[in-house]
User: Fold these one by one.
Assistant:
Number 1:
Amino acid sequence: MKNQMHVTATRHFQRSSRPTCPSHQSVDLLWIPITAVTRHVRRQPYRDTEPMASLFTKLINGEIPAERIYETDHELAFLDINPKSRGHTLVVPKLEVASFHELPPDAACSLVVTLQKVAAGIVRAMGTTHYNVVLNNGAIAGQIVFHVHFHIIPRYEEADRSRGRGLGDSETLETVGEEIRRALEHLEAG
Ligand code: 5GP
């Protein structure tokens, strides 16, 4: 009886607490007038010229090279150019918004779902279940690139895997990127 109650309560908990990700359709609608949204969200005064694309928008558009590891219609994940550990990854919405709290709920939801998927790929590829998920919001909080992004920073016991030189070498980034891409393909296939 006690067990039965537990099962019922758990089911109820799962049902009522499962987040409902709004459909992506409204993200698509928002994504089309991206410069208009950006201007509004950043509260920039009206200018005759379009605002400059953020560093990460340029990277998303392929104007800046990056070790890209996962992409959806709405997000891109790529390795940080200055990694704090092997596998340090950034997950970025394609919608160019500076602050997390200003992202439309659809885009925030989709971003977190992708964040979790990429984290699973990193866990599989890097062989550690230890990692930090970090979002720096605002300059005082350490944000340098004003386009929302989550960091996934794997953590290892051995000091040489979390520190040391060479982590940002293009060869190392390429190797790590390939390992994570393969792990994600494996997860998607399975
Ligand atoms: P923030 O302090 O804004 O949260 O972090 C920005 C991150 O972007 C930093 O960790 C930095 O190393 C990374 N970053 C800056 N420029 C580039 C770039 O051109 N390519 C890549 N892959 N990462 C970058």
Note: Strands lie at 68-71, 75-79, 89-93, 131-134, 150-154.
Number 2:
Amino acid sequence: SPIGVPDLQQCEPAMDVSPTNQTMMLTLNCCLPIPAHKPRVFSFHKYKSKPRVRQAAHTVSDAYIAKYTRAYELMKALPDDDPRSFHTQAKIHCAFCNFAYRQAGNTSVPLQVHFSWLFLPWHRWYLYWHERILQSLLGDPTFTLVFWNWDDQRDGGNVMPAMFVPNGTALYDRNRNQNNLPPALVKLSPTTTGNDSVEIVNQNLNDMYRDVVTATTAELFMGDAYRTGTDITNSTVITAPLEGLIEGGVHNGIHYWTGDPNLTLMQDMGTFTTASRDPIFYAHHSNVDRLWDKWKYDLPGGPRADHNDSDFLDAEFYFYDEKARLVKVTVRDALDNSKLGISYPSVAADELWVNYDP
Ligand code: C2O
């Protein structure tokens, strides 16, 4: 049966272990605030969204960066236990990625939203609510997240976006790889060594081609079935049999490239418990979200199909809305970005990896 929403009262400390050294671990309290009223059920009717186009981070104006910074200042200024606070927003990721909760229909199994077909829809919803909260804090329903266009190997996307770099702003995070600040080129494969820019770019194009173009089925691209009872407690970035190519490949690559290699678990971006403490996380995932649409609608050979198994479509998650209320959503309602009001501009440099000849 499909994954249901967990009992938020049953929360355990979240555990994060280094994939290469099991003695290195972090244990964190990622238990989420439990609002007094009962959860709302999402509907497109209750939650209208203005159509908006998320822009590439390296293309937005100074005025937009100022607004974006302001949005995160406001979110970071909320008390930690406010469901809309940056603190809680970051904890949501930790809670559902590091086993703070158990599966609704089988409490012997911990809930995990990575390493399977839940990955793309869960993260789409995560950004959707995060963006709505930022909109409401700004009082601007047209505000959108940016996307970090790291797959762009030609027009300026493949560096850490400048808006996240200056020390001391609300978009800054100190726990990043200091060797990868601009102008360092993004490496989508953690194994790419060397600093020859032609080699880096070629490897990046090759990785994009492999993870998106060659992933012709939903199983390959999105990941495989995760239902009530599926236990992937022991899946790691090294052993993740249900994981899709986009997640295990270029998506993880950016996490490792951004996190600080001098910290035990490559915090912040390099590990689940802390990744979304870095505001760049949401821009990173916007690009993953854009690439899902690209994969689905815009590759040679015509549209590609998401999973249509009812255990996929009917899976449910909890998030908080902009009024700090708990809201229950389904995977089904995440599959069409246009219904959520979200779109992306077409990116000319996509053609480099779409037409890459390995
Ligand atoms: Cu929930 Cu990029 O990971």
Note: The chain has one domain: 14-354.
